[in-house]
Amino acid sequence: MANARLLDAGCGKGRYARVLLEHExxxxxxxxxxxxxxxxxxxxxICRVSGSLTELPFADGAFDGVYATESLEHAVDxxxxxxxxxxxxxxxxxxxxxxxxxxxxxxxxxxxxxRWFQRKELEKLLARHCRTVRSEPISYWxxxxxxxxxxxxxxEK
Length: 157
Prior knowledge:
Layout: E1 5-9, H1 15-23, E2 28-33, H2 36-39, E3 46-50, E4 63-69, H3 78-87, E5 89-100, H4 119-127, E6 132-138, E7 150-156
Parallel strand pairs: 1-2, 1-4, 2-3, 4-5
Antiparallel strand pairs: 5-7, 6-7
């Protein structure tokens, strides 16, 4: 996706944005996080923006692709955050969300406030705004098969 406008929504220190930029150097990558302190660690070549998942500081259709890696679980209003992630996608734009599977609750020591998601729950929310939606188990490691702890939801607007 040469020159694609991409948003890392809830980027933290930008570790996934850095990896993506290594693989797609022409991408115009924006890392957004609510913590300005975390944004200080985001590497060069990535635009840094402070903001909330429930009120993204971008115009409608501003991005070709948006991804949220273990950040949606921190949003105070999940429905609103999903709506915002879809709002900033251009028509035909693609969204990926990676987060923990509610069916696996208890496998990790987790604060009570953290939100884990049912597969169909996020599919239903995404379907309100996007024309195609699917999900599948995912693993962070190439040499480890997905074990159900993490799910990835994919949508196209």
